[in-house]
Specification:
This protein is of the alpha/beta class and 540 residues long. It has 14 helices and 19 strands. The chain has a seven-stranded mixed β-sheet with strand order 7-10-9-11-8-12-13, sandwiched between helices. Strands 1-3-2-6-4-5 form a six-stranded mixed β-sheet, sandwiched between helices. Strands 16-15-17-14-18-19 form a six-stranded mixed β-sheet, sandwiched between helices. Strand 4 (79-83) and strand 5 (86-87) form a beta hairpin. Helix 7 (272-282) crosses helix 8 and helix 13 packs across helix 14 (494-500). The longest helix is centred in the middle third of the chain and has 19 residues, at 205-223. The chain is globular, with a radius of gyration of 24 Å.
Length: 540
């Protein structure tokens, strides 16, 4: 199913609506000797199209991509092929292997065409005002997501038009007069009955508190002018997402509320087509001079896939890279899209605005028993090493430094190990000292050269603990080294990490958490979190 929030309204696929480039059914091509026939499907705006392509049995994936590219009028590198949930990412891989997996010389594949940078889909205003039937429904229809949605009124939120434009970071995000779209991607609150039916997965008591805390945080963003005032809410139709999203209109009167089946939890590795459809619909450059905010309440996996694609990661890597994160409940991921096409990640999984006593990251199996546990959440500290990456505070800003130190000490009570070492670059020593005073320790000041050559520090500290089963390393620096270490933890090469840093814009005194397990694997918990800062000292 599709979503009307990514551009012009599109009718959902109905029986008999499948368009074929060749004759249907009895008109199908019969494979000739030495030939394979591929039924290549794509979906745009909820409408599926299938086209037949006959390719030599000796051909490779790149040959099929070339045939599809010729049909689409694009280049072969813009075509991503998916077979049985797996991306065909090796251009030289033989097509016969795909046929063997299918067990037939007639093979069905799905393909996605990535538009060139700067491309956009024009959406007529009249079409944009009508929601897609059975795909996106007003909140009043949430209880029956399969029912057709009524037409939206003229007060419907501005369309977030679909585009396949590849993110571009060549234009400064703050260009004068540029449009701005802020996406606030919120994970649902903690739920119970994990691994059971969707309607059993109600929010726990802590889940409700988390959702309330995040709703208040989003309200503050609007009240403080930190996001554009024009706004809308889109949420998954899953029960845990509905209950989380319900807190927002209580704090934001007049908020337009929509829901979409397409936002329900998915595994992007086995279903990249649906995840990519969401990305194409939501991450669209706004018109010059336009500004709006879209809050999206969804799930861990789909949010992380959207994050990876927004950061410029190709489909075939994004379908796997989402596994490198683990978001806390009701956390907020903020991504900004400019009319120039520039996309920047401001924060990932930010949850420092949630009181420490409410923070969780795993759902509950069975019923919520917190009431029988003195109201305490069911959680355990992360094993292995937690790297706390701190972007240094503003010089002389005592409230920022005190807030950082207090937040780190709070994390050590329930989430990270109390065995803590603080290291810093020379320029960030004043921030490190504030933390050390509270922790009653001293900082290790790294060589001046680390600012320009951060790889040595990555190799030394991004490793499992040796002396304890778990420990914590606080690394304080400016945004350059912090981003480099983060991106290296996301399995980027040194050159890729330097190039990709332009897609992130971390605030001062922000916190980034990277968990290194005892087997050496890494998970990012949050990036650029500033929710711990006092409200009179917003990130800058």
């Amino acid at each position: 199913q599709g979503s009307s929030c990514g551009g012009g309204a599109q009718a959902p696929l109905r029986p008999g609506q499948l368009a074929m480039a060749s004759e249907a059914n009895n008109g199908e091509k019969r494979p000739r000797d030495g030939e394979l026939v591929f039924f290549a499907k794509k979906s745009v705006g909820g409408v599926a199209t299938t086209t037949e392509f006959a390719v030599s049995a000796d051909g490779a994936v790149k040959d099929l991509a070339a045939r599809i590219a010729e049909h689409e009028g694009c280049q072969a590198v813009q075509v991503t092929l998916v077979h049985k949930g797996a991306v065909l990412g090796q251009p030289a891989a033989p097509l016969q292997a795909v046929a063997d997996k299918e067990g037939s010389d007639k093979i069905t594949v799905v393909y996605i065409v990535r538009k060139p940078a700067g491309a956009a889909v024009a959406v007529p205003a009249a079409a944009a005002a009508t929601p897609a039937a059975a795909a996106v429904a007003p909140a009043s229809a949430a209880a029956a997501p399969d029912a057709a949605a009524p037409a939206a009124s003229s007060s419907a939120p501005a369309p977030l038009a679909a585009s396949g434009a590849a993110p571009s970071f060549s234009v400064a995000p703050g260009s004068p007069g540029s449009g701005l779209r802020v996406l606030l991607l919120m994970r649902h609150g903690q739920c119970c009955h994990e691994d059971e039916g969707d309607e059993l997965k109600a929010l726990t008591d802590h889940g409700h508190r988390q959702a309330e805390n995040s709703a208040q945080f989003v309200k503050w963003l609007f009240d403080a002018g930190k996001v554009p005032a024009k706004r809308a809410l889109l949420h998954s139709t899953s029960r845990r997402a509905r209950e989380t999203a319900a807190k927002l209109p209580q704090h934001l009167p007049g908020l337009e509320v929509w829901n979409a089946d397409i936002l329900r939890e998915t595994n992007p590795s086995s279903n990249p087509l649906r995840a990519e459809e969401v990305f194409l619909r939501l991450f669209l450059a706004p018109q010059q001079g336009e500004a709006d905010t879209l809050a999206v309440v969804a799930h861990n996996n789909i949010i992380l896939y959207l994050l990876m694609r927004a950061a410029g990661v190709p489909i075939e890597r994004a379908a796997q890279a989402w596994r490198l994160f683990h978001l806390r409940h009701a956390s907020v991921t903020r991504i900004e899209v400019r009319s120039t096409g520039a996309i920047q990640v401001v924060s990932v999984g930010a949850a420092a605005h949630i009181p420490h006593g409410n923070v969780t990251w795993n759902n509950i199996k069975g019923a919520d028993m917190s009431a029988w546990k003195e109201g305490k959440p069911d959680r355990h500290k992360f094993s292995g090493r937690m790297i706390v990456l701190l972007r240094q505070a503003e010089t002389g800003n005592s409230p920022q430094m005190e807030a950082i130190a207090s937040h780190i000490r709070g994390l050590s009570e329930y989430m990270v190990s109390g065995h803590m070492q603080v290291v810093c670059t020379p320029a960030a020593e004043f921030t490190a000292l504030a933390i050390c005073r509270l922790l009653r320790t001293g900082p290790q000041v790294l060589p001046e050269s680390i600012g320009e050559q951060p790889e040595a520090a990555f190799l030394q500290f991004f490793a499992p603990p040796l002396a304890h089963s778990r420990d914590t390393i606080c690394m304080v620096a400016d945004d350059g080294p912090v981003l480099y270490w983060l991106l290296r933890a996301l399995q980027m090469s040194p050159d890729e990490a330097r190039a990709a840093s332009a897609s992130y814009a971390l605030g001062r005194a922000s916190v980034t958490l990277v968990n290194i397990r005892n087997d050496g694997s890494m998970k990012v918990v949050t990036v650029g979190d500033t929710g711990h800062l006092p409200k009179e000292s917003p990130p800058g």
